[in-house]
Amino acid sequence: MNKTDLRQKYKALRNSLSENELEEMSLAVANKILTLPLWEKTYFHVFLPITEQKEVNTEFILHLLSGKDKEIIVSKADFTTRNMTHFLLTDNTKIKKNEYNIPEPVDGIEVPSNKIDVVFVPLLAFDKKGHRVGYGKGFYDKFLSECKSDIIKIGLSFFEPEEIIKDVFEADVQLDYCVTPNSIHSF
C-alpha cells in the first residue's frame, strides 16, 4: 500500500479503539519496552500523544523512564520551519496544546539533538523493513537525520506491520525497532 492509503486505513483503525483498549494496549507497549536493550542509555526523547488522534499513550513510558532516573526530552514543533526544539522534561515544565492539539513544552532547558540517545517515534503504520508512515509533515525524519548516527529509533504502534510501504523516500529514516502490544520488531 502507499502512504496515503495507509494513513486512511490506520486512522480508521485507531478511531475504532475504545478508551479501555487504548489504555490496555498502551500499557502492553510500555511493558514490552522494558525488554529492549537500551537501559544503559541516558537521554530519552518521548512524544506526548495527541489524544484526539488516539496515539499510543506514552504516560506509561514516562513513568518507566522516570523510575529508572533517565533524562526525558520532549519537543516543540515549528510548523513554519518544520524544526523541532527539544526540552528537558522537569517538574517545572509547563505543557500546553498547540493549534493542532499536540501537547508541547512552553519553554525550558533546551537539549541539542546530538545529545539524545533514544527516540520513541509516533507513527500511523510501519512495514517489515522498518519504514514508517507518519502524518506526512516530515518532522521526525528531519529531526532523526540531525541526531547522532547510533541513536536508537523506536516506533510505537497498536498494530502489526504491513508487508511493504510502496512509496518510501530516500529522506525517510528507518526505525531500529517497532513495539506493538504483542511483539517487538527489530530491523
UniProtKB/TrEMBL annotation:
GO terms for biological process: folic acid-containing compound biosynthetic process; tetrahydrofolate interconversion. Keywords: ATP-binding, Ligase, Magnesium, Metal-binding, Nucleotide-binding. It comes from the Bacteria. GO terms for molecular function: 5-formyltetrahydrofolate cyclo-ligase activity; ATP binding; metal ion binding. Its EC number is 6.3.3.2. Its cofactor is Mg(2+). The keyword Thylakoid does not apply. The keyword Magnesium applies. Substrate binds at I50, E55. ATP binds at K3, T4, D5, L6, R7, R132, V133, G134, Y135, G136, K137, G138, F139, Y140. Belongs to the 5-formyltetrahydrofolate cyclo-ligase family. NCBIfam families: MTHFS_bact. This is 5-formyltetrahydrofolate cyclo-ligase. It comes from Flavobacterium sinopsychrotolerans.
